[in-house]
From TrEMBL:
The chain crosses the membrane at residues 32-51. Keywords: Membrane, Signal-anchor, Transmembrane, Transmembrane helix. InterPro entries: TBL (IPR029962), TBL_C (IPR026057), TBL_N (IPR025846). It is found in: Membrane. It comes from the Eukaryota. GO terms for molecular function: O-acetyltransferase activity. This is Trichome birefringence-like N-terminal domain-containing protein.
Length: 374
């Protein structure tokens, strides 16, 4: 089957009956900077809302998000093809970004959990048009996020994000959205009094008035970081144990919503150049490619989900490849843009999606897979 998933669905108050698996796939995006990451997070929030409140027919996941200043599709040829494929079906992910002057849904400068590095306006950006984009499906509409109803739906629940900085920024955005509906902001607090940090292993925010938590666990590979075997070559300074899930995984199990991601750290620059190699069954695999290692790690994760997670209670999601926070040759440049970016063609990112699709399709109860891109 070309596309993953059938539909996003049923209300959160039926969470105890989540024993089914749905999945869908966005084709992978290849390159976008900090601002496009903001768009990506807004779309993630829209996905959450559709999941919590809407019953959607089976999804046909194709999309085209290249817009001009009048919010129309620049690529008319692809637009025509997409229209023929959709055949009038309500496909949440076949649409365009449109300008909505009622946006943004929250003010980052007023949210104590919004990381300073991602608060563009607070860091000196003068225009705010980039905050006004809203996702508009081609043949239907997504209901506006209802914070009051969402807070009630989450009452007594536990939401857990696991992964790298994509998970952390989505964690932040969800909390900031929900805080707009809380009168006493002091009733929302980090359970250990911790401040947001790029390397902190755990962050948990409690909404005491509604008795639920939204948590983040930093696990950039999902599997364990291992020791260096004896007599290993000098270039090996650390290892990744592809057949052992992160040792903090036991803390993820008892949750109602469990959202994973991994991908951005699986590249040669962040692995081999810092002396990090792979290990399976206690043996060093010096010649193993990153894609083969990624596949092995995902199979370890999939096995853990099937054996350790009660999918009758816990709804599992997997978010695929994220956009980089930086751009430029030195990796430390933030290119300011005003509209969603055109697609690009860095093929290794589509390989990630192919691997995820293959692994998830072989699971007995596949999680819902969210992948953004052309």
């Amino acid at each position: 089957m070309k596309l993953w998933g059938n539909y996003i669905v049923n209300r959160l108050d039926s969470i105890a009956n989540w024993g089914y698996g749905k999945r869908f796939l966005f084709r992978s995006i290849n390159s976008f900077n900090l601002i496009s990451l903001c768009f990506f997070i807004v779309l993630a929030v829209i996905c959450w809302y559709a999941y919590l409140y809407e019953t959607v027919p089976p999804l046909i996941v194709e999309e085209n998000t290249i817009l001009d200043s009048k919010s129309t599709i620049l690529d008319s040829k692809n637009a025509t093809l997409d229209s023929k494929r959709s055949n009038g079906v309500c496909d949440l992910y076949d649409g365009t970004w449109v300008v909505d002057e009622t946006y943004p849904l929250y003010n980052a400068t007023q949210c104590p959990f919004a990381e300073k590095g991602f608060n563009c306006l607070a860091n000196g950006r003068r225009d705010n048009g980039y905050t006004k984009w809203r996702w508009k499906p081609k043949n239907c509409d997504v209901s506006r996020f209802d914070v009051g109803e969402t807070l009630e739906k989450l009452r007594g629940k536990r939401v857990v994000f696991v992964g790298d900085s994509l998970s952390r920024t989505q964690w932040e955005s969800m909390i900031c959205l929900l805080m707009t509906g809380v009168d006493d902001k002091r009733s929302v607090y980090e359970v250990n009094g911790n401040k947001i940090s790029k390397k902190i292993r755990y962050l948990g925010v409690r909404f005491s008035s509604y008795n639920f938590t939204v948590e983040f666990y930093r696990s950039v590979f999902l599997v364990q970081i291992g020791s260096v075997p004896k007599r290993a070559p000098k270039r090996v300074r650390s290892t990744i144990k592809l057949d052992d899930l992160d040792h903090i995984s036991s803390k993820w199990i008892d949750s109602d919503i469990l959202v994973f991601n991994t991908g951005h750290w699986w590249n040669r620059a962040k692995l081999f150049e810092i002396g990090c190699y792979f290990k399976v069954n206690g043996r060093l695999k010096l010649g193993m490619s990153t894609m083969a290692a990624y596949t092995t790690a995902l199979k370890t994760w999939a096995s853990w989900v099937e054996n350790m997670v009660d999918t009758n209670r816990t709804r599992v999601f997997f978010r695929t490849f994220e956009g980089s926070h930086w751009s430029g040759q030195n990796g430390h440049t933030c290119k300011v843009t005003k509209r969603p970016l055109a697609r690009s063609k860095r093929e290794y990112r589509s390989h990630f999606s192919d691997i995820i699709k293959k692994v998830v399709n072989n699971m007995s109860v596949p999680p819902l897979v969210l992948t953004w891109g052309p």
